[in-house]
Amino acid sequence: LNFLRVREWQDLVAQLRQIANELGIRVNHDDAAPSEVHRALLSGLLSQIGLRDPERNEYLGARNARFVIVPGSVLQRKGPRWVMAAELVETSRLYARTVGKIQPEWVEAFGAHLLKRHYSEPHWEEKPANVAAFERTSLYGITITPRRKVSYGRIDPVISREIFIRHALVYGEYRTGAEFFRHNAGLIAEIEALEAKGRRRDILADEALLYDFFDVLIPAQVVNGHSFEKWRRKAEQKNPKCLYLTPAYLMQREAGHERSGQFPDSITVQGMILPLSYHFEPGAENDGVTVRVPLLVLNQLSPVRFEYLAPGMLEEKLTALIRGLPKPVRKQFVPAPDYARACLEAIAPSETTLLAEALGQQLLRMSGSRVEPEWWAQVELPAHLCMRFEVVDEAGRVVKAGRDLQALRGRIGQQAQQELVRQPALQIERQGLTRWDFGDLPERHQLDMGGMKLFAWPALMDRRDHVDIRLFDNEDEACRQHRLGVLRLCLLALPAEVRDVPKQVSGMQQLCLHYAATGKCEALKESMVRYAFRQAFLVYLDVRTQAGFEAALAEGRKAVLPQAQELGRVLKPAFAVYHEVRKQLKGRLNPAWLEALNDINDQLGHLVFAGFLEQMEADELRHLPRYLKGIQRRLEKLADAPGRDRGLRVQVQPYWDQYKDRAGKAGHDPDISGALREFRWLVEEFRISLFAQELGTAKPVSARRLDKAWETV
Questions:
Q1: What are the residue ranges spanned by the domains of the chain?
Q2: Which one of 287, 385, 479, 628 counts the least CB within 10 Å of its CB?
């Protein structure tokens, strides 16, 4: 140790003690922590701090100086993020000697008077109702805090006030129980709803006008929610409605059209009042008009009435329908808006007539030009001109939404039915019934819920070895299932007749052999039994009373075996021809006939298939032998005149494709409508008239008659 330096240190300590005593400062006898010593030293070394740059492995110091810790220092290897140095010595490079670790918070505390503060991104925060910004502090060019959120009101009151007014009061991003706020928000929502109905943004005043309203009223010291509430309470003591907006101030024009009843808030469908809402945002999922449909009634609603939308939207939809027609057709209705306006006067919302059908009738009346139904089907409408459906549960929660009612039923129709039958007033379902011992079955149940009349239709449901009483929310489906259920009870009640049906069919073994390529013999026998019973009990299948069922059994059982005998008389020649035709098709045939053979196979597959007897009525089945003979004659003629066959096939193919598209790709849908079913057999008669004219047709048939029949489908 250097003697002189030690004496200097002792003298310095003595002088400091004397000064402290004179100032009344008590000497601390406890050892100071290292961090306390470092903080004390930092107050005099603020210009000699450094922030580590890990990429360059050096420290950024004051005024952009860069230094490294002198080799040999205990901190040289550790490389703390922040350091201070007793001295900076420059040799080959700038070195820091006598280094200590520090924290940036210490720098802020001791160097607050030297810090430079920079603010960015002033913004509104809804929850604390305050304007905030991000602060960056620096000392001699060194960033101390890179990004810290601070309240901006005391920093820039002018900008803070502007942000507060714009976001809290103009945009409504403010949480308050003040009555003026609810009033203003409700008034703006009403005007926005009017704009959504008219699909125009020209009624509500713009944001600049709203800003000016509050800018005039609110004093300069209001910069956040707290200061606003303090001012508001005093201001409302003088004028309770000083912050109330008025319709006259908010509306740039009168909303006569939007308020004329053309855009109702609800729609009545099948006696049910359903709420409507409107939204104007092209491209958005909920653009246009939306109807809220309770889940319980989803399966009971017909989509027809919804095609008419709201009265104020109908003219635009009619115009779009006309403009969407094929060009040669729409040229007859120019200008489209004029025709749409003229048709509008004669078209009233209907629950039975499709909108396109009603429009087509009016265009025909006005111009004499017919628009074919398939042309309307090809028109692609903008999304907002198709009703949007929101299916909601009993709590008002949206279950599913979309613009295709049928698709929604496909997704959640089963859920809707389950919800309906779970209603306490409708608990009548039973399972495992093998005889009619449950009394009479009502045609339907009515349930009143919240002003809406809901219906459920009880029916017997076939379960092969028993029937269940089930509730359906669709009348047509209930009727179809009930007929099958009654038929099953008849089968269960008459086991002797069930056993005797195959015995009454002559040549049963031969029939099974001819049918072997299509299905098993047991399946054919079962189909025969069901067919014979269905024909025998045909007029009784809608019975709903126990007495009526017992009477039906007594009468219908007499006809079961005669029906089986008649069935055998029809199937024997039909299956014989069917067998021969299949043999011909499996033989060696000319590859050039491929298209004709594919058509024949398609036709054959729609005439005889597994379970075909259960989907044919007696007056249809009796023509089956003739249709099969027609195929046989066609095959015989094909070898001599393939070109003629091609020409005839071209005539029938469009009608056959129309049928299959409508009935479903499977081609034998048991639920096809009566008109479509009639059209299907008329196509078979048309084939006879073309390919086997010598066999004769059951009724007059031609392409024109088919066109006319299709109009009723």
A1: 1-30, 34-110, 117-260, 494-577, 588-713
A2: 479
